[in-house]
């Protein structure tokens, strides 16, 4: 079977009808032509039927494919294809892009040379030639159109001398009705005729341009360059000049325009007039100015955005001398989510605008810049002088201003702020160090409460940085196996025998070269949310280790963090691990954080009942003895409680009210059938004191240090009974 294609009816490259094609290749080429016609037909108006378009484009596909497969590669047919596309009006805004995208894929498939060297270069060469021909065709078409306009103007001028009425009608259609400003000037630059569009661009009356010289419409600084441009056209150095310039309006302001300067000659080639076409770019320039403002200004508040604020800080630091002093304030709006959630984001946006305006007003008399560096966070950079107030005065002024209600609708809204302060002299620190220090100070202020401020402290900041650096590396350390599980014995105070092992974390930090113990690991994991990942892993690891040993009458205790206690997936994880490792459920004790349970964070209270339904021992730690905690112990039938550190931190005297209250609390819990324990007990004397108070279980230095499972079970054998 042969695929025969007739020569194109609309010009362009022809098809070699003697080239035999296998049916599959012929079908693919036809599909490419149809797809090409479908896509390009949506990008441009082409005066052909769909069948004519397909036939024409099939011819071009064949020419390109033949050139690609030829023994001697010649990309010139692709140039003809590009020109043919222009000549047949395939000139929409996206026509060339669609053409290249379709042909790139089609040419790669329609060739037997795909595996030969230089094939990709052939494809690129053909597409480049096509684009070159297309661009050349478009350029020629544009030049022809411009030439038509120019000739139409000259013809109109000549016809005006012979047949004034007909010529004027034609001239007005082209000249006066154009949206582009057009000026006809003699060789000295004097206006012969201008159209209304030019007067509109220059915001003057058409008569105001009479008898004026074109050079008068440009700023004095640009006149010499403009004269040179006209001279180059006159002398034939270039046929036309295209350039972007400013023109003077009637009121002295500037209009940004795009000029095209060309020359009209008579029949003998003698220059007669200059034609100046003026396209108004003022709106485009205004848009560019607006975009420029948006690149340095926060769109909502109008103050400097984060990038611009940082560049300002860089500039100050780069020009700083040894005595240059700056103050950097990082301002975080307290509880801003209350406004957004309570009154809506429109009110929240309005309040951000109010805050920005107030901050600008406060530092208006100082060499300062205000920036928005976060959603509800601002920063102020002040270059200090002898008139700059103390930062405490600024902070008080800021919060006093912010405390004044702003009425938005019927709501009088006010805010307060937590502020971090950095005072810096010279160029000791860079921009990133200063911004981070101010942010760190603001975070410490927020941790204290609302409407607080903190000044940057080098030592505290260094400690924070070291802690944050270690914390941020915890996920990687866990992934690399640096984290492990260890166990700390919990003993019965009646006989000092081990009845339970608390599962704890340890981290042999490779870079720090030190061992990070459980409480520090726990706090770091909790601050990053890693506790929800590491907790189940540690629990499963401990259960697996205990299941491999001979049965031992010892419990595994997990004291959960607030985040773990509130996790809605807690009961399912515990149930899954216990079932997989084959341990008796009653050999597992899960102690939830009492603070999370009392606050009913997440699923904390629901987890108590769900864990009990799974059969594990359920407890509370950080127990302080509040009425709410006692109610939860009674309602949820809690098995054990561990007293909070605030209760066990001191040993008051025997007649102390605290001793009596603590003893009464322990006695009440014991009467309810609840096992009472304490942790971090340092000495045997302390353990004996707590035993006398009625506590059943204790953990601490007196009972032994954390270690691996084999060591703990061999050094602290469990009693033969059921334990405490």
From TrEMBL:
Signal peptide coordinates: none
Database matches in CDD domains: EAL, GGDEF, PAS
Domain PAC: start-end pairs: 241-293
Recorded coiled-coil stretches: 143-170
Residues of the GGDEF domain: 324-458
Classification via InterPro entries: Biofilm_reg_signaling (IPR052155), EAL_dom (IPR001633), EAL_sf (IPR035919), GGDEF_dom (IPR000160), Nucleotide_cyclase (IPR029787), PAS (IPR000014), PAS-assoc_C (IPR000700), PAS-like_dom_sf (IPR035965)
Domain EAL: residue ranges: 467-720
Region (Disordered): 1-21, 704-724
UniProt xrefs under SUPFAM superfamilies: EAL domain-like, Nucleotide cyclase, PYP-like sensor domain (PAS domain)
UniProt keyword annotations, A-Z: Coiled coil
Protein name, UniProt field: PAS domain S-box-containing protein/diguanylate cyclase (GGDEF)-like protein
Species per Swiss-Prot/TrEMBL record: Actinocrispum wychmicini
